[in-house]
Design a protein that fits this description.
8% strand; two-stranded antiparallel sheet; hpI Integrase, Chain A; 5 strands; 3-stranded antiparallel sheet; mainly alpha
Protein backbone atom coordinates (compact mmCIF):
# COMPACT_ATOMS: atom_id res chain seq x y z
CA UNK A 1 0.00 0.00 0.00
CA UNK A 2 1.57 3.31 -1.11
CA UNK A 3 1.60 6.42 1.00
CA UNK A 4 0.15 9.48 -0.74
CA UNK A 5 2.47 12.44 -1.37
CA UNK A 6 0.76 14.94 1.01
CA UNK A 7 1.13 12.44 3.85
CA UNK A 8 4.82 11.95 3.01
CA UNK A 9 5.40 15.71 3.02
CA UNK A 10 3.58 16.12 6.32
CA UNK A 11 5.76 13.41 7.81
CA UNK A 12 8.96 15.07 6.61
CA UNK A 13 7.82 18.47 7.87
CA UNK A 14 7.09 16.98 11.28
CA UNK A 15 10.48 15.26 11.29
CA UNK A 16 12.25 18.49 10.36
CA UNK A 17 10.40 20.26 13.17
CA UNK A 18 12.00 17.90 15.68
CA UNK A 19 15.48 19.18 14.79
CA UNK A 20 14.59 22.83 14.18
CA UNK A 21 15.76 23.87 17.66
CA UNK A 22 19.26 22.60 16.90
CA UNK A 23 19.21 23.25 13.17
CA UNK A 24 17.25 26.45 12.43
CA UNK A 25 15.35 25.94 9.20
CA UNK A 26 13.72 28.92 7.45
CA UNK A 27 12.82 26.93 4.32
CA UNK A 28 11.19 23.95 6.02
CA UNK A 29 8.41 23.32 3.48
CA UNK A 30 10.82 23.59 0.55
CA UNK A 31 13.26 21.22 2.23
CA UNK A 32 10.47 18.74 2.81
CA UNK A 33 9.83 18.79 -0.95
CA UNK A 34 13.50 18.33 -1.84
CA UNK A 35 14.85 15.93 0.76
CA UNK A 36 13.99 12.25 0.83
CA UNK A 37 12.85 10.41 3.95
CA UNK A 38 16.34 8.92 4.22
CA UNK A 39 17.90 12.41 4.00
CA UNK A 40 15.77 13.62 6.91
CA UNK A 41 16.58 10.55 8.98
CA UNK A 42 20.29 11.11 8.35
CA UNK A 43 20.00 14.70 9.59
CA UNK A 44 18.12 13.59 12.69
CA UNK A 45 20.78 10.99 13.37
CA UNK A 46 23.54 13.62 13.12
CA UNK A 47 21.67 15.92 15.51
CA UNK A 48 21.38 13.09 18.01
CA UNK A 49 25.10 12.39 17.63
CA UNK A 50 25.85 15.97 18.71
CA UNK A 51 27.31 17.32 15.47
CA UNK A 52 28.05 21.06 15.67
CA UNK A 53 25.27 23.42 14.61
CA UNK A 54 27.31 25.23 11.98
CA UNK A 55 28.46 21.96 10.42
CA UNK A 56 24.84 20.79 10.31
CA UNK A 57 23.67 24.01 8.70
CA UNK A 58 26.35 23.77 6.02
CA UNK A 59 25.66 20.09 5.43
CA UNK A 60 21.90 20.65 5.12
CA UNK A 61 22.46 23.55 2.72
CA UNK A 62 24.74 21.44 0.53
CA UNK A 63 22.40 18.46 0.62
CA UNK A 64 19.42 20.61 -0.37
CA UNK A 65 21.40 22.06 -3.27
CA UNK A 66 22.53 18.64 -4.45
CA UNK A 67 18.99 17.28 -4.36
CA UNK A 68 17.66 20.35 -6.20
CA UNK A 69 20.38 20.05 -8.84
CA UNK A 70 19.74 16.33 -9.30
CA UNK A 71 16.01 16.90 -9.78
CA UNK A 72 16.68 19.68 -12.30
CA UNK A 73 19.46 17.84 -14.16
CA UNK A 74 18.15 14.26 -14.15
CA UNK A 75 14.51 14.46 -13.12
CA UNK A 76 15.11 12.33 -10.04
CA UNK A 77 16.53 12.47 -6.52
CA UNK A 78 20.19 11.74 -5.81
CA UNK A 79 21.05 8.06 -6.26
CA UNK A 80 23.06 6.40 -3.48
CA UNK A 81 25.79 5.71 -4.30
CA UNK A 82 26.13 8.15 -7.17
CA UNK A 83 27.60 6.72 -10.38
CA UNK A 84 30.82 8.27 -11.62
CA UNK A 85 29.03 9.70 -14.66
CA UNK A 86 26.73 11.76 -12.42
CA UNK A 87 29.69 13.13 -10.46
CA UNK A 88 31.38 14.14 -13.71
CA UNK A 89 28.14 15.79 -14.85
CA UNK A 90 28.06 17.79 -11.60
CA UNK A 91 31.59 19.06 -12.22
CA UNK A 92 30.80 19.90 -15.86
CA UNK A 93 27.69 21.85 -14.82
CA UNK A 94 29.52 23.94 -12.21
CA UNK A 95 33.09 24.44 -13.44
CA UNK A 96 33.22 25.70 -16.99
CA UNK A 97 34.96 28.24 -19.23
CA UNK A 98 32.92 31.45 -19.80
CA UNK A 99 34.75 32.16 -23.05
CA UNK A 100 34.00 28.73 -24.47
CA UNK A 101 30.33 29.12 -23.58
CA UNK A 102 30.12 32.17 -25.84
CA UNK A 103 30.78 29.93 -28.83
CA UNK A 104 29.16 26.78 -27.42
CA UNK A 105 25.83 27.36 -25.59
CA UNK A 106 25.79 23.70 -24.49
CA UNK A 107 29.01 24.16 -22.51
CA UNK A 108 28.53 24.29 -18.73
CA UNK A 109 25.18 24.11 -16.97
CA UNK A 110 22.22 23.79 -19.41
CA UNK A 111 19.88 26.78 -19.42
CA UNK A 112 16.92 24.66 -18.31
CA UNK A 113 18.77 23.39 -15.24
CA UNK A 114 20.07 26.86 -14.44
CA UNK A 115 16.59 28.39 -14.71
CA UNK A 116 15.06 25.85 -12.33
CA UNK A 117 17.76 26.38 -9.71
CA UNK A 118 17.49 30.14 -10.05
CA UNK A 119 13.71 30.13 -9.60
CA UNK A 120 14.11 28.03 -6.44
CA UNK A 121 16.66 30.46 -5.05
CA UNK A 122 19.56 28.01 -5.17
CA UNK A 123 21.43 29.88 -7.88
CA UNK A 124 21.98 33.62 -7.57
CA UNK A 125 25.18 34.59 -9.34
CA UNK A 126 25.98 33.99 -12.99
CA UNK A 127 29.04 32.20 -14.27
CA UNK A 128 30.85 29.10 -13.02
CA UNK A 129 30.93 28.21 -9.32
CA UNK A 130 33.94 28.76 -7.10
CA UNK A 131 36.13 25.63 -7.13
CA UNK A 132 36.10 25.50 -3.31
CA UNK A 133 32.29 25.44 -3.33
CA UNK A 134 32.25 22.55 -5.80
CA UNK A 135 34.85 20.64 -3.78
CA UNK A 136 32.91 21.22 -0.55
CA UNK A 137 29.64 19.97 -2.03
CA UNK A 138 31.36 16.91 -3.44
CA UNK A 139 32.90 16.30 0.00
CA UNK A 140 29.44 16.56 1.59
CA UNK A 141 28.09 14.13 -1.00
CA UNK A 142 30.95 11.74 -0.27
CA UNK A 143 30.47 11.99 3.50
CA UNK A 144 26.74 11.31 3.27
CA UNK A 145 27.49 8.32 1.04
CA UNK A 146 29.82 6.86 3.67
CA UNK A 147 27.28 7.49 6.46
CA UNK A 148 24.87 5.34 4.48
CA UNK A 149 27.42 2.53 4.53
CA UNK A 150 28.09 2.83 0.80
CA UNK A 151 31.17 3.30 -1.36
CA UNK A 152 31.23 6.10 -3.93
CA UNK A 153 33.46 7.06 -6.85
CA UNK A 154 34.68 10.29 -5.29
CA UNK A 155 38.32 9.20 -5.41
CA UNK A 156 38.26 8.06 -9.00
CA UNK A 157 41.09 9.30 -11.24
CA UNK A 158 38.57 10.51 -13.80
CA UNK A 159 36.83 12.76 -11.27
CA UNK A 160 40.09 14.15 -9.88
CA UNK A 161 41.32 14.85 -13.41
CA UNK A 162 38.04 16.53 -14.38
CA UNK A 163 38.19 18.87 -11.37
CA UNK A 164 41.85 19.70 -11.96
CA UNK A 165 41.31 20.50 -15.65
CA UNK A 166 38.11 22.46 -14.97
CA UNK A 167 39.77 24.60 -12.29
CA UNK A 168 42.65 25.31 -14.63
CA UNK A 169 40.19 26.43 -17.31
CA UNK A 170 38.34 28.80 -14.94
CA UNK A 171 41.01 30.76 -13.06
CA UNK A 172 39.75 32.85 -10.15
CA UNK A 173 41.67 35.22 -7.90
CA UNK A 174 41.61 34.05 -4.29
CA UNK A 175 39.44 36.34 -2.17
CA UNK A 176 39.26 36.61 1.56
CA UNK A 177 35.96 36.26 3.37
CA UNK A 178 36.00 39.97 4.20
CA UNK A 179 37.32 42.38 1.59
CA UNK A 180 38.76 44.61 4.30
CA UNK A 181 40.04 43.78 7.76
CA UNK A 182 38.41 45.56 10.70
CA UNK A 183 41.61 46.92 12.21
CA UNK A 184 41.82 49.25 15.21
CA UNK A 185 41.12 52.43 13.26
CA UNK A 186 38.07 50.93 11.55
CA UNK A 187 36.80 49.51 14.83
CA UNK A 188 37.03 52.99 16.40
CA UNK A 189 34.81 54.37 13.64
CA UNK A 190 32.25 51.60 14.19
CA UNK A 191 32.24 52.12 17.96
CA UNK A 192 31.73 55.86 17.47
CA UNK A 193 28.24 55.04 16.13
CA UNK A 194 27.36 53.39 19.46
CA UNK A 195 27.45 56.54 21.58
CA UNK A 196 24.03 56.51 23.27
CA UNK A 197 22.80 54.57 26.28
CA UNK A 198 20.12 52.81 24.23
CA UNK A 199 19.99 49.04 24.54
CA UNK A 200 20.81 48.63 20.87
CA UNK A 201 23.92 50.80 21.09
CA UNK A 202 25.06 49.11 24.31
CA UNK A 203 24.59 45.66 22.77
CA UNK A 204 26.31 46.47 19.47
CA UNK A 205 29.22 48.13 21.26
CA UNK A 206 29.68 45.04 23.42
CA UNK A 207 29.45 42.72 20.40
CA UNK A 208 32.10 44.61 18.44
CA UNK A 209 34.49 44.98 21.35
CA UNK A 210 34.14 41.42 22.63
CA UNK A 211 34.39 39.86 19.17
CA UNK A 212 37.54 41.82 18.34
CA UNK A 213 39.35 41.79 21.69
CA UNK A 214 38.76 38.07 22.32
CA UNK A 215 40.90 37.26 19.31
CA UNK A 216 38.49 37.96 16.47
CA UNK A 217 35.82 35.46 17.37
CA UNK A 218 33.71 33.91 14.66
CA UNK A 219 30.16 35.23 14.36
CA UNK A 220 28.75 31.85 15.38
CA UNK A 221 30.80 31.93 18.59
CA UNK A 222 29.58 35.43 19.46
CA UNK A 223 25.94 34.66 18.61
CA UNK A 224 25.93 31.48 20.71
CA UNK A 225 27.82 32.98 23.68
CA UNK A 226 26.12 32.28 27.01
CA UNK A 227 26.47 33.88 30.42
CA UNK A 228 27.58 30.55 31.83
CA UNK A 229 30.69 30.69 29.62
CA UNK A 230 31.94 33.86 31.32
CA UNK A 231 34.19 33.62 34.37
CA UNK A 232 35.25 36.87 36.11
CA UNK A 233 38.96 37.00 36.89
CA UNK A 234 41.19 38.94 39.24
CA UNK A 235 41.75 42.58 38.17
CA UNK A 236 44.96 43.10 36.20
CA UNK A 237 47.34 45.52 37.99
CA UNK A 238 48.53 48.52 35.98
CA UNK A 239 51.59 50.43 37.11
CA UNK A 240 50.54 53.90 38.19
CA UNK A 241 46.91 53.31 37.29
CA UNK A 242 43.67 51.59 38.22
CA UNK A 243 43.59 47.80 37.92
CA UNK A 244 41.76 46.57 34.81
CA UNK A 245 38.75 44.24 35.01
CA UNK A 246 39.23 40.84 33.41
CA UNK A 247 37.27 37.71 32.58
CA UNK A 248 37.75 34.48 30.70
CA UNK A 249 35.48 33.09 28.00
CA UNK A 250 35.16 29.32 27.80
CA UNK A 251 34.49 28.64 24.14
CA UNK A 252 34.18 24.89 24.53
CA UNK A 253 34.36 23.09 21.22
CA UNK A 254 35.24 25.35 18.30
CA UNK A 255 35.61 24.96 14.54
CA UNK A 256 39.29 24.03 14.89
CA UNK A 257 39.36 22.23 18.24
CA UNK A 258 38.51 18.70 19.22
CA UNK A 259 35.36 17.74 21.04
CA UNK A 260 37.25 17.27 24.33
CA UNK A 261 39.05 20.61 24.29
CA UNK A 262 37.74 23.58 26.23
CA UNK A 263 39.15 26.57 24.39
CA UNK A 264 39.58 29.63 26.64
CA UNK A 265 40.27 33.24 25.66
CA UNK A 266 40.57 36.33 27.84
CA UNK A 267 39.18 39.86 27.97
CA UNK A 268 40.75 42.77 29.83
CA UNK A 269 39.79 46.40 30.32
CA UNK A 270 37.21 48.29 28.26
CA UNK A 271 35.72 45.25 26.48
CA UNK A 272 34.87 43.80 29.91
CA UNK A 273 33.25 47.09 30.93
CA UNK A 274 31.24 47.20 27.69
CA UNK A 275 30.05 43.62 28.17
CA UNK A 276 29.08 44.14 31.82
CA UNK A 277 27.25 47.37 30.97
CA UNK A 278 25.16 45.53 28.37
CA UNK A 279 24.38 42.60 30.66
CA UNK A 280 23.30 44.95 33.45
CA UNK A 281 21.17 47.15 31.19
CA UNK A 282 19.49 44.15 29.54
CA UNK A 283 19.03 42.38 32.91
CA UNK A 284 20.74 39.23 31.65
CA UNK A 285 21.96 36.96 34.42
CA UNK A 286 21.80 33.64 32.57
CA UNK A 287 21.39 32.19 29.09
CA UNK A 288 22.26 33.90 25.83
CA UNK A 289 24.46 36.99 26.12
CA UNK A 290 23.61 38.72 22.84
CA UNK A 291 19.92 38.84 21.97
CA UNK A 292 17.53 40.49 19.56
CA UNK A 293 15.83 43.77 20.51
CA UNK A 294 12.40 44.56 19.07
CA UNK A 295 11.17 47.98 17.92
CA UNK A 296 9.78 48.73 21.37
CA UNK A 297 13.08 48.07 23.09
CA UNK A 298 12.20 44.65 24.49
CA UNK A 299 15.09 42.18 24.78
CA UNK A 300 14.34 38.71 23.44
CA UNK A 301 15.05 35.53 25.39
CA UNK A 302 16.60 33.91 22.33
CA UNK A 303 20.13 34.29 21.02
CA UNK A 304 20.91 36.34 17.95
CA UNK A 305 21.29 34.40 14.72
CA UNK A 306 24.92 34.34 13.48
CA UNK A 307 23.82 36.27 10.39
CA UNK A 308 22.67 39.11 12.66
CA UNK A 309 26.27 39.66 13.78
CA UNK A 310 27.22 40.25 10.16
CA UNK A 311 24.22 42.55 9.65
CA UNK A 312 25.09 44.60 12.74
CA UNK A 313 28.66 45.15 11.54
CA UNK A 314 27.47 46.24 8.11
CA UNK A 315 24.85 48.59 9.60
CA UNK A 316 27.47 50.21 11.81
CA UNK A 317 29.82 50.52 8.85
CA UNK A 318 27.13 52.38 6.90
CA UNK A 319 26.43 54.65 9.88
CA UNK A 320 30.16 55.40 10.10
CA UNK A 321 30.23 56.50 6.46
CA UNK A 322 32.11 53.40 5.32
CA UNK A 323 31.12 51.08 2.47
CA UNK A 324 29.26 48.17 4.14
CA UNK A 325 29.85 45.86 1.17
CA UNK A 326 33.58 46.01 1.93
CA UNK A 327 33.20 44.53 5.41
CA UNK A 328 31.84 41.40 7.03
CA UNK A 329 31.96 39.82 10.48
CA UNK A 330 35.01 37.82 9.42
CA UNK A 331 36.81 41.14 9.11
CA UNK A 332 36.94 41.25 12.91
CA UNK A 333 38.93 38.01 12.89
CA UNK A 334 41.38 39.02 10.17
CA UNK A 335 41.50 42.52 11.66
CA UNK A 336 42.58 41.23 15.05
CA UNK A 337 45.66 39.50 13.63
CA UNK A 338 46.43 42.40 11.30
CA UNK A 339 46.26 44.85 14.20
CA UNK A 340 48.38 42.57 16.37
CA UNK A 341 51.00 42.48 13.61
CA UNK A 342 50.89 46.26 13.21
CA UNK A 343 51.49 46.70 16.95
CA UNK A 344 54.43 44.31 17.00
CA UNK A 345 52.74 41.64 19.11
CA UNK A 346 54.52 38.28 18.60
CA UNK A 347 52.53 35.98 16.35
CA UNK A 348 52.43 33.02 18.81
CA UNK A 349 50.93 35.31 21.47
CA UNK A 350 48.28 36.59 19.06
CA UNK A 351 47.47 33.04 17.93
CA UNK A 352 46.93 31.99 21.57
CA UNK A 353 44.12 34.53 21.73
CA UNK A 354 42.71 34.06 18.21
CA UNK A 355 42.98 30.26 18.54
CA UNK A 356 44.23 29.96 14.96
CA UNK A 357 45.67 26.50 14.33
CA UNK A 358 47.31 27.29 11.01
CA UNK A 359 50.60 29.15 11.29
CA UNK A 360 50.50 29.63 7.53
CA UNK A 361 47.15 31.41 7.70
CA UNK A 362 48.11 33.59 10.65
CA UNK A 363 51.49 34.44 9.14
CA UNK A 364 49.82 35.79 5.99
CA UNK A 365 48.50 38.75 8.04
CA UNK A 366 51.88 39.27 9.67
CA UNK A 367 53.70 39.09 6.35
CA UNK A 368 51.34 41.67 4.85
CA UNK A 369 51.91 44.06 7.77
CA UNK A 370 55.69 43.62 7.51
CA UNK A 371 55.67 44.23 3.78
CA UNK A 372 53.55 47.38 4.12
CA UNK A 373 55.90 48.96 6.66
CA UNK A 374 59.16 47.39 5.56
CA UNK A 375 62.04 48.89 3.62
CA UNK A 376 61.19 46.89 0.48
CA UNK A 377 58.03 48.96 0.07
CA UNK A 378 59.92 52.27 0.50
CA UNK A 379 62.70 52.15 -2.06
CA UNK A 380 61.72 55.59 -3.41
Amino acid sequence: MSIDRPAQLSGRIAALDTIAAVLPIDRRDELAELLTDQDVETLRHLVNQGMGENTLRALTSDLAYLEAWSLAATGGSLPWPAPEALLLKFVAHHLWDPEKRLSDPQHGMPNGVEDKLRVQGFLRSSGPHAPDTVRRRLATWSTLTKWRGLEGSFSSPALKSAIRLAVRATPRPRQRKSAKAVTGDVLSQLLATCRSDSLRDLRDRAILMVAFASGGRRRSEIASLRKEQLSPGEPIPVEGGTALPSLSIHLGRTKTSGAENDEVVYLTGSPVDALNTWLHAAKIDKGSVFRAIDRWGNVSQRALDPKAINDILKQRAAMAGLKPEEFSAHGLRSGYLTEAANRGIPMPEAMEQSRHRSVQQASSYYNSATRRSGKAARLL
